[in-house]
Each structure stands twice: as C-alpha cells, then as structure tokens.
Amino acid sequence: MDHDRRLFVCINQKSGVGEAVAKSLKKELKVQGLKKLLTGGERQRVRVQTCNCLDICKQCKKGPGAALIVYPEGTVYGNVRPADAAELVAEHLGRGHVVKRLRVD
C-alpha cells in the first residue's frame, strides 16, 4: 500500500515567506532523499503544498516565519523560516521526531 504525507504551508500572511519555506522544504526533501522512500515495505511519497489559510494566524504573527501542518499526523508548526527546512525534513520526516521549538500546540 502507498502512503502520502503532505506538508501544507500557509502563504496567506507575510508576503513571500510561505513560498520561500515551501521551496526550501522541496529542496531539502530532494537533497536528503526523502521525497520518496520505502519504509517497512511500503512506499511513501512526501508532497509540499501551499495553501491560502490554515486558520492559525496567531501563531505565525508571533514571528517572521510561516505556519505549516504535516499530515496525516496533524503536527502544526509556526514561525517556520526557510533556514528551518533542513531540520524539519531530517527530524520530522526522516527520524519521526517533532521539532519542539517550532511546534504549535
């Protein structure tokens, strides 16, 4: 069975930062070889998608970064900047560890 994971990145606030975060995440997925992977005999594909609103504006207004949600687990991150992409991809997608400093409860 195939499984898709999606990272939805808000581009509604703060002109340009959401697009830059999405671009950096896509780049890191390729660099780290995590865009498509085989886990436990099942293929997993990761997609980064932009969206207009995640309805968590309070969180992304606290800093210069964007908000994003990782599905299917539903982990919400706030104030994410392009420089955070490598850590998010390696830790959350690669190792399955939530990046606590960016997590929004």
From TrEMBL:
Source domain of life: Bacteria
Cross-referenced CDD domains: TRX_Fd_family
InterPro entries in the cross-refs: Thioredoxin-like_sf
Protein name as catalogued: (2Fe-2S) ferredoxin
Organism annotation: Hymenobacter arizonensis (Siccationidurans arizonensis)
